[in-house]
Amino acid sequence: MKTESFNFDNPIEKSIAGALYSRRFPHAAILEGSSPEERMKLAKKIAAALVCSGAEAPCGACPDCRKASVDSHADILIYSVEDKPKAFKVDTVREIRSKAYIVPNEADRKVFILENSHTMGVEGQNAILKILEEPPSYVNFILLCSSKSGFLPTVLSRSTVYNLGQASAAENETLPREKIIGAAKDITVAVTALDDFEIVKAAAVFEKDSKLLRESLPVIQEIFAQALRIKYSAEEKESEYGSIPADIAPKLSRRSLLELIEATDLLINSVKLNANHNLMVTALCTKLRKAVIR
Ligand SMILES: [Zn+2]
Fold first, then answer.
1. How far is the CA of 44 from the centre of ligand 1 (A)?
2. How far is the CA of 40 from the centre of ligand 1 (A)?
3. What is the pLDDT of residues 45-67, one digit of tens each?
4. Residue 269's pLDDT is what?
5. 44 with 141, same domain?
């Protein structure tokens, strides 16, 4: 299977090809939108162009292109994880980081393709940030995601985002990160206080917005997970959730926090299975509340 050359009729591919030819392709590129298959196909094309030793990269004929086309180029490293919260582990990010500091084997460049990279938690994103801030000159990162909304602003500011267009109408709309975090914070505080009125009030924002619920659940879970870590180690670095995890940690037992994390896990899975949305909002209130009472 020969690596195709870029499609110049497509404005995004044209702009990517232009950046590659002028050797200005960014060290960190985020490909968002479209389908997972299209994102990966384009990422592999870019990677082949970056390692290609022929004239019109990707030439499709040089040894580098030939190896790239069968996923066996030593300097193209592909990491694929499932599209689920925290699937991209911080340990994997650390491994990528240490590999990035080793010079390429065969080509002039070393390319890392990270599929579903938006599933990195805050810790993972902060770990990748360290290398995005000062990448070795020969390294390129291509981060693939359905939507850039899962990334921290600090990661986005170090990257060039290429939007490949709609995958589906619902997937395409990006929610502001502050909105997701705000909704998640409200519900964690209300649940911790065991204030029924506040719980219902905090959950109201999800009633007409299934996407907000879907994107907030992993954040809710992460806030409880941070609170639990604070309980164990008493030290947790500054996170994008401000003082919330530290505020709720003393108010909840370890057991309650574990149950909250577990309950959120169930909710995340139900949302993924497209459970009835109104029932999901009710389940959010009751399951979290129950985890605190016991
Ligand atoms: Zn080539």
1. 13
2. 18
3. 999 999 999 888 899 899 999 99
4. 85
5. yes
Q: How far is the centre of ligand 1, averaged over its atoms, from the C-alpha of 109 (Å)? A: 13
State the helix-helix crossing angle for 277-293 and 196-203, rounded to 10 degrees. Answer: 150
Cα 239 to its chain centre, rounded Å, is 16
Q: pTM of the prediction?
A: 0.58
Tokens 């580098």 -> residue: 64
93 close to 128: Cβ distance less than 8 angstroms: yes
Q: Do residues 119 and 83 touch, judged by C-beta distance below 8 A?
A: yes
Cα 250 to averaged position of ligand 1 atoms, centre (Å): 59
47 alpha carbon – ligand 1 mean position (Å) = 11
Of the pLDDT bands very low, low, confident and very high (cuts 50, 70, 90), residue 5 is: confident
Distance 81 CA to ligand 1 centre (A): 28
Residue 219 CA, ligand 1 centroid: distance in Å:
43
Residue 6: inside a domain:
no
Average pLDDT, the chain: 89
Tell me the three state secondary structure of residue 156: helix
Q: Is the pLDDT of residue 159 over 50?
A: yes
User: HSE of 149 in the Cβ direction (CA atoms, 13 Å)?
Assistant: 21
Tell me the CATH number at 25. Answer: 3.40.50.300
Distance 53 CA to ligand 1 centre (A): 5
Say yes or no: 52 and 147 in one domain. yes
- The sheet carrying 110-114 orders its strands as 76-79, 110-114, 139-145, 28-32, 160-163
CA of 230 to the centre of ligand 1 (A): 51
Helical segments of 75-176, H only: 90-100, 122-133, 153-157, 169-172
Residues 146 and 117 in one domain: yes
pLDDT tens sequence across 221-254: 999 999 999 988 867 677 889 899 999 999 999 9
